[in-house]
């Protein structure tokens, strides 16, 4: 048995976004979506998020943002959080399980 527990393959993207949490009184922070699958996204962010924390992800304009069509705002829960680069400990990768699966047509688009 391998250690990969993924339900779906990932599609690499680079989509700037803003990430906010209900308890954040400082407003949304900038991040980037690095990959997507029907049930989630992986973010690159300058702050850590706690597993179980609810996030709102608002897409910014960019060439890959067109893949999301009408999915301008997504909500989900943090599944995991890790330092992206040990030499830059304020840079994180964050796995987010979406509350609503992304439409399958997003994954049929040639990239």
Structural overview:
- This protein has 111 residues and is mainly beta.
- It has a single domain (11-108), classed as predicted glycosyltransferase like domains (Thrombin, subunit H, Beta Barrel).
- It contains no helices and six strands.
- It has strands at residues 11-20, 29-37, 40-45, 54-59, 73-85, 88-98.
- A six-stranded antiparallel barrel has the order 1-2-3-6-5-4.
- Strand 2 and strand 3 form a beta hairpin.
- The protein is globular and about 35 Å long.
- It starts with 10 loop residues before the first strand and ends in a 13-residue tail after the last strand.
- The radius of gyration is 14 Å
Q: Classify the beta-strand content into a percent band.
A: over 45%
The CA-CA distance between the termini, in Å, is 31 Å
* H-E string: EEEEEE
Q: Any idea of the CATH topology?
A: Thrombin, subunit H
Query: Helix proportion of residues, in percent?
Result: under 10%
CATH class assignment: Mainly Beta
Structural class estimated from helices and strands = mainly beta
Tell me the number of structural domains.
1
- Per CATH, the architecture is Beta Barrel
Strand arrangement across the biggest beta sheet? 1-2-3-6-5-4
- What is the number of helices? 0
How many β-strand runs? 6
Average predicted local confidence, pLDDT? 81
CATH homologous superfamily caption: predicted glycosyltransferase like domains
The coarse silhouette is globular
């Amino acid at each position: 048995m391998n250690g990969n527990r993924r339900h779906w393959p990932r599609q690499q993207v680079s989509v700037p976004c803003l990430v906010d949490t209900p308890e954040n009184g400082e407003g949304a922070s900038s991040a980037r979506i690095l990959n997507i699958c029907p049930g989630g996204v992986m973010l690159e962010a300058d702050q850590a998020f706690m597993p179980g924390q609810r996030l709102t992800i608002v897409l910014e304009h960019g060439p890959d943002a067109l893949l999301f069509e009408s999915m301008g705002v997504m909500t989900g829960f943090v599944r995991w959080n890790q330092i992206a680069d040990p030499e830059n400990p304020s840079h994180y990768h964050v796995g987010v399980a979406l509350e609503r699966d992304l439409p399958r047509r997003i994954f049929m688009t040639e990239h």
